[in-house]
Design brief:
Layout: E1 3-8, H1 15-31, E2 34-39, H2 44-51, E3 56-58, H3 63-66, H4 74-78, H5 80-93, E4 99-102, H6 105-116, E5 122-126, H7 137-150, E6 151-156, H8 159-167, E7 175-177, H9 192-201, E8 209-214, H10 223-232, E9 238-243, H11 251-261, E10 270-274, H12 279-284, E11 288-291, H13 301-308, E12 313-316, E13 332-334, H14 339-351, H15 353-371, H16 373-384
Helix pairs in contact: 1-16, 5-6, 6-7, 10-14, 13-15
Length: about 375
C-alpha cells in the first residue's frame, strides 16, 4: 500500500486545490493508497477534505512566507527562515511516507528543503506556467534549481506548462503530463426543469442569450474583455453572469469591473453572483460559456467543465486551452484580449444554434474521453511510480 503525504500551502478552492481533491480521493478510493494532507494555512479546502473523510493536519506557516508573491524578490529572500522551519517539520512528518506530493510552489520549496533533512522523495505538481510575466526571476531560479536537483518527478497539467518549465531550464526528463480529471456525475442530476427554475430565479427570460464566465475576478482572467465585447455587440437579448470573486488582493480590479458594468448601456445586462457552490447548475443556465484569459492558461478547468455541462465554449487561443479545444470542432478559439473577435464568436453562436449543438456534442465527447477522472488517475498513478 502506497503512503502519500499531500502538502499544500493554500487552502482555498482554486483550480490547483480542486485537482488536489481529485488526486487525494482517487488515490485513496481507487488505488488503496494511505493518504494524509498537510495544509500550511487553513481554509475551505480543509472542510472539504474532512467531509470526504480525508485526514488533514494544519501546520501554520511563518508570516514571512505569506509576503512572498510570485514576482517578489526581497520577500523571497527574507522568507528562508520560515521555509527552513516548516521544512524541518515536514521532514519529520514524512518519515513514514513513500513520497510527498507538493501541490503548489511554496509547498514544493518547503518539501524540497525537507528532503535535505531526510524527508520523503518529492513530487512537484506544477499547475502554473513559469513565465517572466507572472514569476520573478529569483523565484523561477529557485523553483527550477530545486526541481532539477531535489524533485523525483515534476507533474504538469499540460504540454504548455511542460514547455514553459523546460524553457526556463527545467529538466524535461523529470516531467510527466497529467491533465486535470473530471467526472460527469456532477452534471447528471440537473434536469431541464431545474435549469428553467434557475433562469427564472436569476430574472432571465426564455429568449435571453446568456453568456457566463466562471473564474475569480482578476485582470488576467479577462472579465473586462467580456464587458467590452458586450458593449460592442449588437445583441439586445445578451445577458452576462459572472461567477467568482476577487482573491489575492485584487479587489480594486473587481471594483473597476462593477463600475464599468454599472454604466447605463450595461447595467441591465450584467449580474455578479460571487462564489457559488452550484456551478454545474449555473453553467447549464448559460447558452455560451466564455473562458477569456488574457495570458496563457496552464490548463483551463472551466473549459472542460463547460463541455461536461454540454454548453458551447469560446476560449482564448493560448496555453492549455489549445490542448482542449479544436477550433470550430468542439469549441471556438479567439485571440487573447480581443473584444472584437469575442463579439464575432458570440454573434456566430447566437445566430447559428445548429453550430452550438455540434460544438456541444463534440465537446462532451472530448471531455469524457480525454479528461475523464479514471483515465487521469491512472496517469497520475503511473507518474508517481
Amino acid at each position: 500500500m502506497k503512503k502519500i503525504l499531500f502538502l499544500s500551502y493554500t487552502a482555498s478552492l482554486g483550480g490547483g486545490e480542486l485537482c488536489l481533491l481529485d488526486m487525494v480521493t482517487g488515490m485513496k478510493q481507487d488505488y488503496g493508497a494511505q493518504v494524509m494532507v498537510i495544509l500550511l494555512n487553513d481554509g475551505p479546502l480543509r472542510h472539504k477534505l474532512e467531509s470526504l473523510g480525508i485526514p488533514v493536519q494544519i501546520i501554520g506557516a511563518a508570516e514571512s512566507l505569506a509576503a512572498v508573491k510570485t514576482n517578489s524578490f526581497w520577500a523571497s529572500v527574507g522568507a528562508w527562515r520560515g521555509v527552513i522551519a516548516s521544512a524541518r517539520v515536514i521532514a519529520q512528518q514524512s518519515q513514514t511516507y513513500d513520497l510527498i506530493h507538493a501541490n503548489n510552489l511554496k509547498a514544493f520549496v518547503i518539501a524540497a528543503v525537507a528532503r535535505l533533512w531526510g524527508g520523503a522523495p518529492v513530487v512537484w505538481h506544477l499547475h502554473d506556467i513559469l513565465t517572466a510575466h507572472i514569476f520573478g526571476k529569483l523565484n523561477r531560479i529557485i523553483a527550477v534549481t530545486l526541481a532539477n536537483y531535489l524533485a523525483a518527478r515534476v507533474i504538469v497539467n499540460s504540454q504548455a506548462t511542460a514547455a514553459a518549465f523546460a524553457q526556463v531550464g527545467g529538466d524535461r526528463r523529470k516531467v510527466r503530463v497529467v491533465y486535470n480529471g473530471f467526472s460527469a456525475t456532477r452534471f447528471a442530476p440537473i434536469t431541464p426543469a431545474m435549469v428553467q427554475q434557475a433562469r427564472m430565479d436569476l430574472g432571465l427570460a426564455p429568449t435571453d442569450f446568456v453568456v457566463g464566465m466562471f473564474s475569480r475576478l482578476s485582470p488576467w482572467k479577462g472579465q473586462h474583455i467580456l464587458l467590452a465585447a458586450a458593449e460592442l455587440a449588437h445583441l439586445p437579448n445578451l445577458r452576462l453572469i459572472f461567477v467568482g470573486e476577487a482573491l489575492f488582493g485584487e479587489t480594486k480590479y473587481a471594483d473597476q469591473l462593477r463600475e464599468t458594468a454599472a454604466q447605463p448601456d450595461l447595467a441591465h445586462k450584467v449580474q455578479w453572483l460571487g462564489f457559488r457552490s452550484d456551478i454545474p447548475l449555473l453553467m447549464k443556465t448559460c447558452d455560451v460559456i466564455v473562458h477569456g484569459s488574457t495570458e496563457p492558461e496552464p490548463f483551463g478547468r472551466v473549459i472542460v467543465e463547460a463541455q461536461l455541462a454540454q454548453r458551447p465554449v469560446i476560449a482564448t487561443a493560448a496555453g492549455g486551452a489549445l490542448e482542449i479545444i479544436q477550433d470550430q470542432v468542439n469549441g471556438l478559439l479567439v485571440p487573447p484580449a480581443d473584444a472584437s473577435a469575442l463579439v464575432q464568436g458570440l454573434q456566430l453562436l447566437h445566430d447559428q444554434p445548429e453550430l452550438r449543438q455540434q460544438l456541444v456534442a463534440a465537446g462532451y465527447e472530448n471531455a469524457l474521453t480525454k479528461f475523464g477522472l479514471p483515465q487521469v488517475l491512472a496517469s497520475f498513478n503511473d507518474a508517481i511510480n
